[in-house]
Amino acid sequence: GAVVSQHPSWVICKSGTSVKIECRSLDFQATTMFWYRQFPKQSLMLMATSNEGSKATYEQGVEKDKFLINHASLTLSTLTVTSAHPEDSSFYICSAGTSGQGETQYFGPGTRLLVL
Amino acid sequence: SQQGEEDPQALSIQEGENATMNCSYKTSINNLQWYRQNSGRGLVHLILIRSNEREKHSGRLRVTLDTSKKSSSLLITASRAADTASYFCATKKGRGVGANNLFFGTGTRLTVIP
Fold it and tell me: Higher confidence at residue A71 or residue A22?
């Protein structure tokens, strides 16, 4: 149980295009989903938190107009990198959690984005 | 930044030896968790220790938590080549803004030599 999937697993795009990454909780309902970014050989940095049906909460320094997050249902959240540039190339990881303070977050396998 | 720090950054040991990784954090926490990440992959949750706990065991894993020093350690006993991965600690505040957010440490890259 508690499986989270991401699609696509990797994507290469041209500079200026937009890329959408999907995060799905396959066997549970996720009240909260989290998006992280990880640069090579670095740690995960929280980008934003989204609750189903409400606007995402972005961490300081993360542009909400550049990284659009939609959490339309209890099993799906999407991250759209708009007008991607080479510096947006990174490993994007989502996680999903249920309500409650002590719960574990379940992580997706990640999406590697390369912007040329 | 709420990001924690881990040391060592990299650790290389022989199979069968024990591996110890340390994590320090900055803010008050509700719990601290350890995760494992194989190269280029997602994270696997290993163990969670709450702020009122001092030690926890799970199989070959032993985690300690010292809230007065804001530090934790992860011990992997009798290491195996398959334990080769990056290990991250992550803290959760548990209250206030961002109560359920996880903030990750810088990670330790463990290599277990067969």
Answer: A22
